[in-house]
Structures
1.
Amino acid sequence: DQQVKQNSPSLSVQEGRISILNCDYTNSMFDYFLWYKKYPAEGPTFLISISSIKDKNEDGRFTVFLNKSAKHLSLHIVPSQPGDSAVYFCAAFPSGSARQLTFGSGTQLTVLP
Amino acid sequence: EAQVTQNPRYLITVTGKKLTVTCSQNMNHEYMSWYRQDPGLGLRQIYYSMNVEVTDKGDVPEGYKVSRKEKRNFPLILESPSPNQTSLYFCASSRTSFNEQYFGPGTRLTVT
């Protein structure tokens, strides 16, 4: 049973528009969430994170929103650029000392010029 | 340049032939981890290490071994590979277990 779910395998948006990638989780012990971006033939790279004590974190064009009551987070990219085309993984850490990162299945974002 | 390196990048082998995938980081990170990526399943953790000589199982440890004798190296060992271990493998490291992880470029393994 996947504890971190990304229900949209793919998403296409026009350049300049907003991209919204969604992620749901089931484990209430998760307290730190991260987004990673992955290009083909490369390892994932860290993009942005949010702690469960916050509901929003912003870094340039990227904003992550966390809704703890709904166990849902989203990544907003504004404005989207063709270079943002990649697979985006949502990931979560549980609280406690043995911190294992649990990943979602990923969403392929395609930004059309 | 700060990086995580993995070798080999590509490997085709036969069932039962022992193999090792090496992983090395030059950032003096305490935490290292191995993942496998399979279609529709995302990245699943195989093993992780909180520090030298400290390792523990992740979500899918069966069929794999690891060791952490030095801080910079964390090899993944498949004693008797099977076709269901055909996958894309990533090594990762972070300063501590509480920090974001840096990933290597991946190793594409095919077991026939």
2.
Amino acid sequence: NAGVMQNPRHLVRRRGQEARLRCSPMKGHSHVYWYRQLPEEGLKFMVYLQKENIIDESGMPKERFSAEFPKEGPSILRIQQVVRGDSAAYFCASSLAQPGRTDTQYFGPGTRLTVL
Amino acid sequence: EDQVTQSPEALRLQEGESSSLNCSYTVSGLRGLFWYRQDPGKGPEFLFTLYSAGEEKEKERLKATLTKKESFLHITAPKPEDSATYLCAVQAGGGNNRLAFGKGNQVVVIP
């Protein structure tokens, strides 16, 4: 399967626990994006990363949320001390990002986080 | 701030009844307008990218068009398998690659 992979697909956490969401981009893609989809809301941009670099985190809440895309391994979205309002579907996308060209973002199946 | 508004929010069609979905946008320097399809419990699936006013793209029963202020997704003679939420997104000029999405058009095609 050459598509974007996310795991786990479903994650249940109690308030105050930590959630770690993983994303492996499509083969050959070096750019990763995280989006959040709340019930009845559209997809909202959170963060844009390249290997070992955060390019744009303007959509990320200032507290409790962090993201990384290490040189080796998947991208990780980490939510510390989760609250009920963090319950949502979190989608990862990846792109080839060829210089000077508008590139298409391909999405994974998402991780559905439920905070009890 | 980039804004995307999709209408109608929900649409029920009889099989074979053609219709159009609207995506109005406000963006500083459009780099691209994207249409995705999303089925319940799944991630968005890429359909089209449009770059400039006047551009059109087709795929099976779907045709996307673009003007300076809006895009239309035309569904011709839909089938039940075309039932999905259709998402419109814009990418602004500059170095930022983030997409700004509308809330989607939820389409149900009744056999």
3.
Amino acid sequence: GNSVTQMEGPVTLSEEAFLTINCTYTATGYPSLFWYVQYPGEGLQLLLKATKADDKGSNKGFEATYRKETTSFHLEKGSVQVSDSAVYFCALAHSNYQLIWGAGTKLIIKP
Amino acid sequence: DAGITQSPRHKVTETGTPVTLRCHQTENHRYMYWYRQDPGHGLRLIHYSYGVKDTDKGEVSDGYSVSRSKTEDFLLTLESATSSQTSVYFCATYADRSSYEQYFGPGTRLTVT
């Protein structure tokens, strides 16, 4: 069945460091892929998405590229800020209007 | 902002008591979901609805029931709360069939003592 695997956290970085959070998936066909972010005490919100192979989603300085050959959708940001501290979830679209979720990766940015 | 509210936002209850959580949306979205979030488990789907009076089970539905009598309201009921149901509960809606994007409410923190 479909599944999403994310790197375990927490990931701790210094401000202005480069960020990568790995996400790989198993799926039939070519599902849409998503990154959601959850700030402390809040619900999840969509960060970016990609709907087909080689698409790059981007938002707020974050990017992720849909790599069909490696079944990956890694999240990257060139220079993180303290305000990026949050939990990040990778997800893929399931056929019956559901999302399949990764376990989430907590990101801690230190000033 | 998809206009999703959840009530209550925090609740402490005793084992064995019934509890109902409410999700209200103002966007006329057809699909609604209830998730629970626990450390180490990410988000797990409890139940979802694909229209008024149309609901289905998710992966962790045991001990939970839902109802949807109006498009805007989706209720989650714990018939007899247990300590294992202590969690943060999120409601989400799904707007666009082509995008699969889900919008989330702020969550309800439930503690069962």
4.
Amino acid sequence: KAGVTQTPRYLIKTRGQQVTLSCSPISGHRSVSWYQQTPGQGLQFLFEYFSETQRNKGNFPGRFSGRQFSNSRSEMNVSTLELGDSALYLCASSLAGGPRDTQYFGPGTRLTVL
Amino acid sequence: GDSVTQMEGPVTLSEEAFLTINCTYTATGYPSLFWYVQYPGEGLQLLLKATKADDKGSNKGFEATYRKETTSFHLEKGSVQVSDSAVYFCALSTPGRGGSNYKLTFGKGTLLTVNP
């Protein structure tokens, strides 16, 4: 079974631009979560989607948004980029996002904001 | 709120040495506990998990036991290899809004370097 895929793997943007990242979950998985990883803050939860609905959101500004499509693929968007948005963005999928479900991670998208 | 504390390292060991990475947690309810590993330039891979007290998760020679009385989930391996060099993250599942979905709360990660 194919794993979680994320595109693109690397992005370079300048301040003020916006960016869209894509995530394709493991086949059959309906829950998709996004995490931001930085050296200073570590791994932080952004949001989670299930059946095209956002069920949970972390403590990030409204510039960070996402959506999920009917095939469970997900995108996240960051508008008005800031230098501090430079990070590795990880997508994870699970069957239903339940308490014992394992989240499987993709390789991440490395975003650099100049 | 829920949180995870793990030794931050870095930890440097010689091949075949014994490894312990401590992890303690604070959580309401009965979370599931996980260890993930991240190799350079890659995403996170699940190493092992435990979903209830006294469960032992194991994989590739690594083990961790869910200790509710000490709120701990320490990672151990009897004999490390150079290929085990990576960053290890302890995590717990915490309920989201409405309690119907769960997110992972991670520790800061522990960098392990194993020398030949």
